[in-house]
Write a structure and sequence with these properties.
Elements lengths: L4 H30 L2 H34 L6 H38 L2 H31 L5
Helix pairs in contact: 1-2, 1-4, 2-3, 3-4
Amino acid sequence: MKWNVREWLKRYGPAELLSVGATLAAAGLGFELTGSYVAAALAGTWAGNVAYFGYILALDIRQTRRRRRAAGQPYTGRVLLRNLRALVVEFGLAELFDSLLIRPALMYYLPKALGSLSGGILLAKLLADVTFYVPAIISYELSKKRLRRFEE
């Protein structure tokens, strides 16, 4: 597999920036409202996911619409389903372990261990991203030839 670091940074970088902001804000708000590290971990995990995947899906839709328009083809509901399928293949396995186990656990334990909510949440996010991106990037690269061709 070729190392497409520029492509990966262009694809994932803006989504990560949005995700970091959403993660820190939601974790802080969750902790402020409840005083619970569990609430902070879950709020941070899920808000980060919504920001991240919302951006990635919007990016994919925009790129697909542009390519189809250039080919004189409409963007249909069926094409949207194909966009969604490609995302599930790209992120499904990585996201399953990440959102249900790794990220919430790290976001629960690290703030307590470090004695800093924001520092622990940020470190947890960075560590969880490592276990997330290895399978996600492999899946993305493998899916590009078959699942990311939207012109018919």
